[in-house]
Amino acid sequence: MQWEVVIGLETHVQLQTRSKQFSGASTTYGAEPNTQACEVSIALPGVLPVLNKKAVECAIKFGLAIDAEMAPRSVFSRKNYFYPDLPKGYQISQFELPVVGKGKMTIQVPAGKNTEAYEKVINITRAHLEEDAGKSVHGAVEGMSGIDLNRAGTPLLEIVTEPDMRSAAEAVAYAKKLHELVQWIGICDGNMQEGSFRCDVNVSVRPKGTEKFGTRREIKNLNSFKFMQQAIEYETQWQIETLEDGGTIQQATVLFNPDTGETRAMRTKEEANDYRYFPDPDLLPLEVTEADKARVKADMPELPQALQARFISEYQLSSYDASTLTASRAQADYFVAVVNAGAEPKQAANWVMGALSAKLNAEEKAIADSPVSAAQLSALLKRIADNTISNNAAKQVFEGLWAGEGEVDAIIEAKGLKQVSDTGAIEAIINEVLAANQAMVEEFRAGKEKAFNALVGQCMKASKGKANPAQVNELLKKALG
């Protein structure tokens, strides 16, 4: 029997606010345990929640970015459950009326072993505001467990997809695209190691060609794209083998162990009625007006797809170049700054995607931390364009910029890299090379084109690499008649 995997994602995006969802306590990461647990976080009697306006604006930004329906009136509910990391016994979330409704994202799924790259639309069911819980800490004190409530109340936007994905590759492509988008629009820092972007993946399998969904199991808190791929592939195979062996799948919440590459059941999966949702009596309904949306939209950056289209139309870049340059907002901004400083767009694209990216990757630096500024790279590219230096010499200048040896012209001067473009000087070099290499000259005249390239090489060597290659080619052809 052939099987089909069905996947949906629930992603918890920590919003970039200085204070918590319903209180003024700090959200700074890494503080001493429980130093950011205010009266609201620890549920002291009589305290009341106050909604964070910045978090609402973040939700609106996301809704606009995915062209989603947005509720003019949404409601906060109490999601009741009893774990020690949530002192009040319930989480404030949104259930029946979320702030962001149906939307969609287009993803690019890379080529696999037996598949070509393709595009796919992933439908977003909803995105709702809620607060995070605290954290259980095991082993900080030998033989004991503790609770750190610093995260309790941290603003989250939970983004839920339809079960539209049919492979681990599609799920990872969606998660990466979402990760890129929330950083691009400035609502999340995207730091997966710190828990700012966490994915829960619902996986089920069914016989291929059938419409009815299988029983799903939810893999919780995946904070790595690599682990997501591994977890989905293992879980899919486990479910298929279980069904083929005559077993049944029980709906459950499971955890992925990266050390073993396996998933294991943590608890039976709760349904919505287990949480006994009801509207929170301490919070008024949230109203989002057209004026609110217009104000937030005016503050948003140009979105990746719009920027790609502009790079193609305005700068005549290829679709591949435009897509690569908009892989992150920081990279796109850097490229635009290089061009705005006077560099030719295609040449700027080649250097940003090539030499600069290679150097950043080798040293594990973000483009925001590049030792070579956009203005410096632009100045370097202008010296290539005006024939002051050759492409090979430019690589040396780039290394000098990276090492902090000064500005472009100073490095060119200090290293003696200025290109020889004087026709008389180049002709003199060519005459010397031709006189010393008569055998190559005869080979060329006998029809061997490789001899011409060898003569060009000799001319460049004689000039110590400083002669303008284009002029060398032109004057050498003339000299060989």
From TrEMBL:
Gene3D superfamilies documented for this protein: 1.10.10.410, GatB domain, N-terminal subdomain
Ranges of residues in domain Asn/Gln amidotransferase: 333-480
The protein's enzyme class: ligase
Catalytic reaction equation(s): L-glutamyl-tRNA(Gln) + L-glutamine + ATP + H2O = L-glutaminyl-tRNA(Gln) + L-glutamate + ADP + phosphate + H(+); L-aspartyl-tRNA(Asn) + L-glutamine + ATP + H2O = L-asparaginyl-tRNA(Asn) + L-glutamate + ADP + phosphate + 2 H(+)
Keyword list, A-Z: ATP-binding, Ligase, Nucleotide-binding, Protein biosynthesis, Transferase
GO molecular-function terms, A-Z: asparaginyl-tRNA synthase (glutamine-hydrolyzing) activity; ATP binding; glutaminyl-tRNA synthase (glutamine-hydrolyzing) activity; transferase activity
SUPFAM superfamilies hit by this protein: GatB/YqeY motif, Glutamine synthetase/guanido kinase
EC number: 6.3.5.-
InterPro entries in alphabetical order: Asn/Gln-tRNA_amidoTrfase_suB/E, Asn/Gln-tRNA_Trfase_suB/E_cat, Asn/Gln_amidotransferase, Asn/Gln_tRNA_amidoTrase-B-like, GatB, GatB_C_1, GatB_Yqey_C_2, Gln-tRNA_amidoTrfase_suB_CS
Segments crossing the lipid bilayer: none
GO terms, biological process: glutaminyl-tRNAGln biosynthesis via transamidation; translation
Role of this protein: Allows the formation of correctly charged Asn-tRNA(Asn) or Gln-tRNA(Gln) through the transamidation of misacylated Asp-tRNA(Asn) or Glu-tRNA(Gln) in organisms which lack either or both of asparaginyl-tRNA or glutaminyl-tRNA synthetases. The reaction takes place in the presence of glutamine and ATP through an activated phospho-Asp-tRNA(Asn) or phospho-Glu-tRNA(Gln).
Quaternary structure and partners: Heterotrimer of A, B and C subunits.
Family, per entry: Belongs to the GatB/GatE family. GatB subfamily.
The protein, known as: Aspartyl/glutamyl-tRNA(Asn/Gln) amidotransferase subunit B
